[in-house]
Prior knowledge:
This protein is mainly alpha-helical. It has one domain. Helix content is about 60%, strand content about 0%. The chain has 13 helices and no strands. The chain is globular. The chain starts with 7 loop residues before the first helix and ends with a helix.
Amino acid sequence: MLKQPTTYECQLAKLHERGCEISDEAFCEEILSKVGYYRFSAYFLPYKTVDKKYKQGTEFTKVYSLYEFDRKMRHLLFSVIEEIEVYLRAQLSYFHAHKYGSDGYMNPDNYSNRHKHETFINRINQLITTNRKAALVKHHITVYDGTFPFWAIIELFSFGMLSYFYADMIGTDQKQIAFDSFNTTVSKMKSWLYCCTNLRNSCAHYGRLYNNVFRAAPAQLQNVNSDNKRTLFAAILAVRALYPDKVKWNGVFMPEIMSVFYEHRDVLELSHIGFPDNWEDLVRK
């Protein structure tokens, strides 16, 4: 039988009953009304005991600080991953269009054997239909009878579809993109793209980063091991590996992430996000 909905007063009482210390009940109720009890309760997980109570000293304000850390990290990481996505799109469109022509992406011969061209074309048609009111789509339907050069259609690709496109490229093409644009190997790039896609989706849909086990684990990254390979730390190292601007990473992103960590230093347990004590040196590019 499904649980029944509860009032804010009942939710507050449940927190009290489980051992949460609440110094300002009005503030607590305000946060529950803005965030939602179900979403917020996930941040209590590190404080839970075996009997579903909370550890002694669990304060609502501390749990809220964890929630705020998560929110700020999502915002920060989403903006960084956006830059990777735009860069990857630019590299793929330039390379592919110059090698195979403006409509070479429509030719199944320009892909590896794993490529399912009918599925790919169906996905493109779905993108065109979904974005039919966008100026880009209207223009190519009106002026070019619904045909799109690769550098235009790729603007509709999600990060996941960009990764899918790269994974289906001919091996020699993959190697050239990986080496020339990211200074890495194909196997590493595929793995890191998958991690970035997973992290990007978590950030876009307000998923929890703190004390979370990620589905994707980056391959062949220094300082990533069996203990931390599915943590926020490993995911950020994958982002760092693909980020195209070392100066901006160190000069802009690092000060921002350090500021967030410092602001919430009193509540953060580095082990819950896989970060070692010397994480600043390891995350710097």
